[in-house]
Amino acid sequence: MTDAVGRDPEAVSKFVESFAAQLVEAGMQRMPARVFAALLSSDEGSMTSAELGEQLQISPAAVSGAVRYLTMTHMVSREREPGSRRERYRVHGDQWYEALTNREALIKRWEAALREGVSSLGVDTPAGRRMAETLAFFEFIEAEVATMMERWRVHREKTFGAG
């Protein structure tokens, strides 16, 4: 059995569950991982709560909780259907970029806390040196991510055109 564009719905479902399992293994919660994988694998990149519930065989409450998590992490956005009260949940082509970029704010907060820790503990103490090394690591990562993201923008435009 195939869908309107010739895909096997069972194979698509297996992919969604397999990719979701990989996301769970990487630390994402199970329901958000399943919803994200379903959205990512849909041609439109968007689905309603009812469509997600039907495809994944989950309750509206499970969809709602998953979408709440995914919107907080900037991996999915909510959109109103024109002329309707229904919302659609959309995954964007640059969701990985957005998710990683939003982590930069978290890293900056960690850096500020670590600077305070180095100052409080004293840079010449074992704990202070450990804090300083951790701070240096995050500063390094922050600089590398910024450089990498610029390279990605250039690569993405060359590969997929202006987005």
Broad structural category: mainly alpha
Low-confidence sequence ranges: none
> Mean pLDDT, as a whole number?
89
The neighbouring-strand order within the major sheet is 1-3-2
Rg (CA only): 20 Å
Spell out the helices and strands N to C.
Answer: HHEHHEEHH
What is the CATH class designation of the largest domain?
A: Mainly Alpha
According to CATH, the fold-level topology of the largest domain is Arc Repressor Mutant, subunit A
User: What count of helical segments does DSSP give?
Assistant: 6
CATH architecture of the largest domain: Orthogonal Bundle
Content of β-strand: 5-15%
Q: Would you count the extended β strands for me? A: 3
Shape: elongated
Assigned CATH superfamily of the largest domain: Winged helix-like DNA-binding domain superfamily/Winged helix DNA-binding domain
- DSSP helix fraction: 55-70%
Number of domain modules: 2
> Biggest β-sheet, characterized?
3 strands, antiparallel
Organism: Streptomyces coacervatus
Keywords: DNA-binding, Transcription, Transcription regulation
InterPro entries: HTH-GbsR_regulator, HTH_MarR-typ, WH-like_DNA-bd_sf, WH_DNA-bd_sf
Pfam families: MarR_2
Question: Keyphrases for this structure?
Answer:
single chain; 163 residues; mainly alpha; 2 domains; 68% helix
How is this fold's topology laid out?
Layout: H1 9-25, H2 30-40, E1 46-48, H3 49-56, H4 60-72, E2 77-80, E3 87-90, H5 95-121, H6 126-160
Antiparallel strand pairs: 1-3, 2-3
Helix pairs in contact: 1-2, 2-4, 3-4, 5-6
